[in-house]
């Protein structure tokens, strides 16, 4: 534990991990937050869209929802900030235009043709077997050292289950291509699905969204943060020297007592001028998938049958590359409970044209890829903290989500004797 008083601490990265680290450390220390983007928040990026009549729709494009079961640290954080939330409606839709096949997880027979499809009934029964078998193999510790693809083959599941359910749902959750999802460690996958109630047809957690858009918690943080914030200011280099750290941005250099690197693992390693063997070994194994994200009003990206629209809508492309990125559309009116005159969609990696007149924002986000080598580092990542006046945090410490970033930042705060 670090007990020095009134330290000068730099936080490199203004996503949720950096926000929470800065929020905690500023209770006792002088904190400077450096963020490469023009805004603080990282994947928390809300776009205010003019609806006319002096009203605006605040639409999230990255972080959107959280639940009451697996996000305890994030919920504690926003409660401390006094930020309100409201219930979200979660559902998943699979749509294959080439096959003329659509189903929604909460309304499986919204398309009445599914009632007469033997293949769909077989899929439902196999999903039930998949849930039961996965729970059993997880409890028996049979999934260790196995990828998701290997598990599906060894357990005897059909290619149809993988194509129409397991890989689309998983690719949607982790914003990763179908083939890369099959390389995902089976045990990590199963634990995540079990924790989120995805290995049963009932007992799912309640999902929530931030009232007014996820940027509301960022605004609340900035309003109370006593430190200094630099946006549009990427950290280029970090050198640990003379009992402290020297940090270079595109504008200047600064000296601090300590540094918390709250960036993607690959970016964190690139910042260090003198990485230790352990830092180089652990951080170099992480890769990130680049995802194009478009906010728009073109509902042609959703299934033709509106009653089948889900919160998450996965579109199976006829010519999708086996290692191509996942293509899905979030229906934001449903996810955020938006009361507005237009339909708002957020589409990841569209492999079809979106009407230019309906496009509002064209963005890019990077998501960690959880292959076997990367996840094998997670047990050792906390051991990097506190060495050479440097700490690390980010969603890659666990499953890649907001709660995981907050949890890792809270662990940094705890090393300084500060609890969330």
UniProtKB/TrEMBL annotation:
Residues 16-301 form the Amine oxidase domain. It comes from Desulfosalsimonas propionicica. This is Putative NAD/FAD-binding protein. GO terms for molecular function: oxidoreductase activity. Keywords: Membrane, Transmembrane, Transmembrane helix. Pfam families: Amino_oxidase. It comes from the Bacteria. The chain crosses the membrane at residues 6-26.
